[in-house]
Amino acid sequence: MATVQFAEVKKSFGAFPVIKGVNIDIEDGEFVILVGPSGCGKSTLLRMLAGLEHISGGEIRIGGRIVNTLPPKDRDIAMVFQNYALYPHMTVAKNMAFSLMLNSAPQAEIDKRVNYAAGILGLSNLLDRYPRQLSGGQRQRVAMGRAIVRDPQVFLFDEPLSNLDAKLRVAMRAEIKELHHRLKTTTVYVTHDQIEAMTMADKIVVMHDGRVEQIGTPLDLYDNPNNLFVAGFIGSPAMNMIKGRLDADNPQVFVAADGTRLPLARPYPQAVGKNLVYGLRPEYIRLDGTGYRVDVVVIEPTGYETQIVVNFGGSEVTCVFRERVDVRPGEAITIAIDPANVHLFDAEGGQRLAR
Amino acid sequence: MTSITNTDPAVPERSLWSRLIGHRDVLGFLFMLPAAVFLLCFLTYPLGLGVWLGFTDTKIGRDGIFIGLENYQFLLSDQVFWLSVFNTVLYTTVASILKFALGLWLALLLNQHLPFKSFFRAIVLLPWVVPTVLSALAFWWIYDSQFSIVSWSLMKMGVIGSPINFLGDPNTARASVIAANVWRGIPFVAISLLAGLQTIPASLQEAASLDGASSWQRFRYVTLPMLTPIIAVVMTFSVLFTFTDFQLIYVLTKGGPVNATHLMATLSFQRAIPGGQLGEGAAIAVAMIPFLLAAIMFSFFGLQRRKWQQGGGD
């Protein structure tokens, strides 16, 4: 186990920069998830940590040791690949034992560690199978078993669940989290799925366009997004963003593009005249007979909650209600907003204004 | 043929023709017929004729009669025939090993990130696309006893004092024809193995390097095992091509000096056409069949899908 540090890490393919100065500190034993849309550089960053990509600038340290030029085999890290990268010509047991075999570990030690990992992952009766004879979830477990057997300083996961179906993904999510709880090995996990990030991480690193947008615990990112990108990326359904400006006479009122007046928790006199975005999470909208009257566009009942898209403030706004709502598209409902949970963003820079 | 238009299968009264056409097996047979005729005319008939001639004493211009195994009995005690068998086995073994080793090496090189990669890949194919007779003529010139460029260069560098008699001495002649065959055969091996190398996912190499494998260990434990099915196919074909080689020898040495480079194929031709002994020549050709069958059996068992290649359900 070890800490991991990225210090001003840069990477370019030719003249094209893909990682533009990244700083991340990962504590010993922490489960950190790099999340972002595809092309944001998160996988490249992970591969740089693994030693599979060159580092153009900055430093990467594992356990305090600079590893910039260390080949992958000397970094003492294990990686689970998106396509699992199991050796097709080796049985499950051989796949898991491969690294120990290369290190000429004694056979008794190999057997012990393979059986231990197989026991944790429920693979004990599959040890003689070949990867082709396994289901996707089983292959995923073998790939993790190969990492566990190593007992490395750091586990790396590169979108490990994206080849699984939705149900299995949820199950494996819990399994990986439990595994981390048990082994307490420092883990860096890459995904584009913010739900995976929210449910599994101790700490989330939101990346966008080769930069870190924000680092924090899942709920911290959810409640206090630094900017429009993080606000829109974290949370499902996504935060509603209504464009407009403050009322010059009363800077505690936000005026949407269509003239709708929306409440704020406090006045923002310094922001008068700027183009702003009113950020409102769907669950902070409630049904209220005395509120705004809005037209329903789409209604999606899921059983335990009801999602309704309405026309509000000049854009389509998603609301999530815990109660069941019996309306049809075209009909009207009345909603109210709790201003304490509203975020105000600068539309130009995207930064959030202090509450 | 009005009934052809009646395509509704529920209608009972159909002509014999439309019922035949509609039958899967008949249709399948009809589709295979052209290929079958082609194979019968150009493969089975010549092979059968060759085998039959081997049992006769046919000469050019005279029909032979059936003489049983007499041709084979004669060959058993024929020194030149046994020399040609030895030459063929030596030629095939040495050339195939060299082609495999150099071809694999070249394939591994071409699989790296090289500048002008596609250009090099195209160049490598050149020896294979040049007609054999042309490249053999070029080698004939290279191996010329007086004007050889190799001898000339070595003499200019002061390595040797007089030209090498490449095709005049039995051992240098054998080495020379093997070298020419290897030069011609490498592209096939290299390009086929390169295609095989490219089917190995890069993530396997990455996983192995993270698992602590050195580049040799990655080759030994990942690349080579995954390449074996393709190696088996490529080398079977390479062995078959080499064993039946004719053009190169015929242009370069015609089997000389003193039969030192006579292969079974060239000896068969030599006896049958210039020598006129069609029966005996055919018998030599037929004697190649067991060797070729052995190579095919080897590939058949070598090519059987390994357990790890088989899909799910067990």
UniProtKB/TrEMBL annotation, chain A:
<dbReference type="InterPro" id="IPR015855">
    <property type="entry name" value="ABC_transpr_MalK-like"/>
</dbReference>
<dbReference type="GO" id="GO:0140359">
    <property type="term" value="F:ABC-type transporter activity"/>
</dbReference>
<comment type="similarity">
    <text>Belongs to the ABC transporter superfamily.</text>
</comment>
<keyword id="KW-1003">Cell membrane</keyword>
<keyword id="KW-0067">ATP-binding</keyword>
<dbReference type="GO" id="GO:0016887">
    <property type="term" value="F:ATP hydrolysis activity"/>
</dbReference>
<keyword id="KW-0547">Nucleotide-binding</keyword>
<dbReference type="Pfam" id="PF17912">
    <property type="entry name" value="OB_MalK"/>
</dbReference>
<keyword id="KW-0997">Cell inner membrane</keyword>
<dbReference type="InterPro" id="IPR017871">
    <property type="entry name" value="ABC_transporter-like_CS"/>
</dbReference>
<dbReference type="GO" id="GO:0055052">
    <property type="term" value="C:ATP-binding cassette (ABC) transporter complex, substrate-binding subunit-containing"/>
</dbReference>
<dbReference type="InterPro" id="IPR003439">
    <property type="entry name" value="ABC_transporter-like_ATP-bd"/>
</dbReference>
<dbReference type="InterPro" id="IPR027417">
    <property type="entry name" value="P-loop_NTPase"/>
</dbReference>
<dbReference type="Pfam" id="PF00005">
    <property type="entry name" value="ABC_tran"/>
</dbReference>
<dbReference type="InterPro" id="IPR005116">
    <property type="entry name" value="Transp-assoc_OB_typ1"/>
</dbReference>
<dbReference type="InterPro" id="IPR012340">
    <property type="entry name" value="NA-bd_OB-fold"/>
</dbReference>
<dbReference type="InterPro" id="IPR008995">
    <property type="entry name" value="Mo/tungstate-bd_C_term_dom"/>
</dbReference>
<feature type="domain" description="ABC transporter">
    <location>
        <begin position="4"/>
        <end position="234"/>
    </location>
</feature>
<dbReference type="InterPro" id="IPR047641">
    <property type="entry name" value="ABC_transpr_MalK/UgpC-like"/>
</dbReference>
<dbReference type="InterPro" id="IPR003593">
    <property type="entry name" value="AAA+_ATPase"/>
</dbReference>
<dbReference type="GO" id="GO:0005524">
    <property type="term" value="F:ATP binding"/>
</dbReference>
<dbReference type="Pfam" id="PF03459">
    <property type="entry name" value="TOBE"/>
</dbReference>
From TrEMBL, chain B:
<feature type="transmembrane region" description="Helical">
    <location>
        <begin position="26"/>
        <end position="45"/>
    </location>
</feature>
<dbReference type="InterPro" id="IPR035906">
    <property type="entry name" value="MetI-like_sf"/>
</dbReference>
<dbReference type="Pfam" id="PF00528">
    <property type="entry name" value="BPD_transp_1"/>
</dbReference>
<feature type="transmembrane region" description="Helical">
    <location>
        <begin position="89"/>
        <end position="110"/>
    </location>
</feature>
<feature type="transmembrane region" description="Helical">
    <location>
        <begin position="221"/>
        <end position="243"/>
    </location>
</feature>
<comment type="similarity">
    <text>Belongs to the binding-protein-dependent transport system permease family.</text>
</comment>
<protein>
    <submittedName>
        <fullName>Sugar ABC transporter permease</fullName>
    </submittedName>
</protein>
<keyword id="KW-0813">Transport</keyword>
<keyword id="KW-0472">Membrane</keyword>
<keyword id="KW-1003">Cell membrane</keyword>
<feature type="transmembrane region" description="Helical">
    <location>
        <begin position="122"/>
        <end position="143"/>
    </location>
</feature>
<dbReference type="GO" id="GO:0055085">
    <property type="term" value="P:transmembrane transport"/>
</dbReference>
<dbReference type="InterPro" id="IPR000515">
    <property type="entry name" value="MetI-like"/>
</dbReference>
<dbReference type="GO" id="GO:0005886">
    <property type="term" value="C:plasma membrane"/>
</dbReference>
<keyword id="KW-0812">Transmembrane</keyword>
<keyword id="KW-1133">Transmembrane helix</keyword>
<feature type="domain" description="ABC transmembrane type-1">
    <location>
        <begin position="85"/>
        <end position="301"/>
    </location>
</feature>
<feature type="transmembrane region" description="Helical">
    <location>
        <begin position="182"/>
        <end position="200"/>
    </location>
</feature>
<feature type="transmembrane region" description="Helical">
    <location>
        <begin position="282"/>
        <end position="303"/>
    </location>
</feature>
